[in-house]
Every structure is written in structure tokens, then in C-alpha cells.
User: What shape does this take?
Amino acid sequence: MQAPQLTIRTDAQLISNSVPTSRILEIELTAPEAQLGRESTPLNLALVIDRSGSMGGGKLEQAKIAVRQILDLLRPTDSVSIIDFDNIVTVDAEVSSVTPAARSEMIASVNHLQARGSTNLGEGWLQGCESVACRLADGKVNRTLLLTDGQANQGITDPEDLSHHAAALFERGVATSTFGIGLDFNEHLLEAIANNGGGNYYYIDREQRITELLMQEFKDLAAVTLKNVVLEFSFPAGVAVELLGDWRAERHDNKLVINLSDLPANRTVNLFIKILTPPGSGQLVMNAAAFGHDENDKSFNVAQDINLQYAAPDKVAVAEAARDVDLVTRFSTVVVGHYSNEAYKLEREGKYEEAGKLMDRLMVEHGVNLPHTTRARYERIRVEVREGLDESHRKDYNMDSYNLKRFRHDEQRRDPDQK
Assistant: This one.
């Protein structure tokens, strides 16, 4: 099996020997291809379905279609639970091996689901996570998929509490991906659960896309070639670091530990770190190391150093003029995605002017570096947040910023109009 590919880049190699210097680092990790002829990694899933009254009609029916398609693709090596919730949480099925007979029984259970009641999102999701945890096993991809269209209005409702639960469950080995349907759910809550839970967040703008996006996540999970991936970034004392993108990370002395969960074959993750280096002499050496388990459940560990050279201010100025423009562009798109998300939270709270000022600062500092289409869109958004957004725009813009900060947006490919 091929090894994962890890690279680390900077916008410029020289740093000042007399004053602090700001630099950008980009760490890129690519998962290897799947081994030819090898069975994909076994899955341990919980499918948690909101069946509250607001899911009536097309939403629940489309969700049932998606779940049935997933069940059709599971194998005897896979395990799965199906949980539904309104104000009451129901365990519809829990199987450790998806045999043909078990599949038929689960499909029958799904077919009988009907919309009713209110939304005990927290308890439904936690029940799904506990079901995964009970079957937790090395060598499997362990994940809860939460599908909902509403607010958490029963049981645990505080977003911070739910985020803490997501983090604790991820520490136990259970990741969560969230799917918000329509306009009535809290996008910041579902994104926080996914971010803290080591999974992915999806906004489903219309019910016809439920199957498409659930299957997108399922296919990624079925194609995993790296499991439980952790990236450690080590840096000398005195260096200030800021990780962009709302990745789950912890700081331990002079080490930043970033949890990347599971990566499907050929998936590339780009992490952007802003550093501020102290004055000094000689070289400043930093290291990125990624480790976890491959599809054969064998440990892997890849590492890469990067050296920044101290120099006189005049030479640093020359290096600044020759910065890697493409890297700076990629970094600026991630920064705009990261902080515009904060602006949308302010806007939702009715703090329109604060949201606008935050967007203003972003565009002043990074607008010139953005691809043309991204810049035009966010120039418009910074005006709109001052006037207040409707729910459709809130969710569209939040999803856009999520994709930017996670470096998953189509516009983050090289823009021929970039100058």
C-alpha cells in the first residue's frame, strides 16, 4: 500500500532577525489509493432520523429512500443502528452484521416511519452515538449520521452542551456528521456538532437532495483508506500560531494536535496556520507529522520539516515581494470562510453593525487576494449582513463559508482571473 503524502509549504522562507515576522504555512495531507481488489473498510454506523412533524411529506419520504439505499450497500462485515426521534427516541434496529435477513427487517422498519411530535434532537443523536460506541471496534469506521430539519426543542437543547458531548464522543472514537434540511434548523449548532465530532456538515436546501448528500457521505466512508488520523505540528518556543478552519485541535506546550478523523482514498486535506516568529538567528525549524491507521489497520507515520531562515530586514523585504501568491490566495479564502462564519453568528443575534464591521475588516485585509468570483460575492455579503439576512441566505452563506474554511470550495482551485 502506498504511504500517505505529506507536504508543508510557506509563503516565504526568510524571517527577520530583528523584529517579529508573520508567515503562512500550508500543510497538505493526501490519503493513498485503495488497494486493488481489497474489500473496503468495515463500517459501524448509526443512522439517526428526525421524524418530527415538520419532516412530514417529502422530507421524511426522501430520507427513507436514502436510508434504504445505504442499507442495500451494507455487507455482513458492517454493523448499523437505525434510530428515529421526535419527542420520543426509538431504536428501530441494531445489528452487528448486515445479513440479507437483517437488511429486510431494517427496511421494513424504515418503511413504517411516520412524522409526528416535536424534536428531541439531543437524545436521538446521543442514542445513535451510544449504539455506535457499543459496537466500537478497531479496524472499522465508526460514525453517526444525524439527519434533521428542526431545532433541538426537547431534552438537551443548549448548543454548547451538545458541542461538548460531540467532542467527548469523538474522544471515545465515535465521529458525527450532520445533515440539516430546509430553513428551520440551527446551522451553527449542526456545524458545531460536526466540527467537534470529527465529521462533516451538510446543508440540504431542498428535499430532493437528501439522497444525493447522504450517499455522498456514505461513499466517502466506504472509501476510507486512513483511519483515526491525527496531525501534530511542532514549533519552537516563542512562535505564536493560529490554526484556521475550525478543525478540532488542542494545544500542548509547543505542539498543536489536530484530529482529522477518517480520510477516503485520494482525499487531500489542506490546513492553514498563521505564525508569528520572534527575532533570532540561524534557522527556525518546524515539523508536521501525521499518524493513524491504514486500510489494513496497520499504523502509519509520515513527517516533514520546514526551515525558515533568519535574515536582515532588507533581505526579508525582498522575500516578501516574491511571496508565493497562489498560497496567499488559498490562505485568504480560508480566512474569509473562517471569520465570515463568526459574522453570521453576530447577524443571527441581531448585531448587524458588528457583523458588517467584521466583514469590512476581512475584505480590507484579504479581499485583494481573493479569486474574482469570491471577492465579488463577499463584497455583496458584507453589505447584506448590515441589513439582516433571511433564513435562506443565512444557510446558503454559512455553507459557502464552511466549504471555504475547510478548503472544499470549487473556487479555491486556481482562478485564471486572479491578479
